[in-house]
Amino acid sequence: MSGEALLIELTGVTFAYPGRPPIVEDFDFQLPPRERLGLVGPNGCGKTTLLHLMVGLIKPQAGAVRIMGREVRQEKDFRQVRQQVGLLFQNADDQLFSPTVLEDVAFGPLNQGRSAAEAVEIARQTMAQLHLTGFEDRVTYQLSGGEKKLVSLATVLAMRPRVLLLDEPTTGLDEWTKKRLAGILNHLDIAYIIVSHEADFLEQTTTKLHTMREHGHRLTIFTGKERFL
User: What is the pTM of this model?
Assistant: First the structure.
């Protein structure tokens, strides 16, 4: 890594939902700069939980979370993290809440302190990058599932994150939209983690695969061609 700080590091992390055994236990994880990582594993093993721990939507009962080399514990710390680590939810309806597409995409930059004019310009640039020009005045809830997914990605990318976390990004998408999404991700110059069950999509978009074992506290890492065998 040539001395570069890890973007995300989890050390000895344990998390359990109330009344249940730990879903991750004494768990270690690292995301280096420029990594394009796929994360797979059986349902319920903790993949989504892991992403939520990284952005502070849930907090570990033990262990440490470090983002860009800095340990984060309190909500105020994670508010800063979410400016740099963008999470694409599995369900686009959890991400979109403004009346129009342009308002949704501009919301993040506005929340970062940009002026209204700057936020709109960033939103338009981001939408153009994702081939969404012409969607500005579309009513968000009337979009198709694939359109909602791409607009959700635009809302995250408009905040110019250093890391992107994608939770089952191809759920409900047709093959054409999956290829379009893969092309967009391959042109991004940031690190990302993709949680997915679709080997073909991960083959197109990632350079390393982590397989999350049952019970969530072990990761087996495969690299190169063998990672999809």
Answer: 0.89
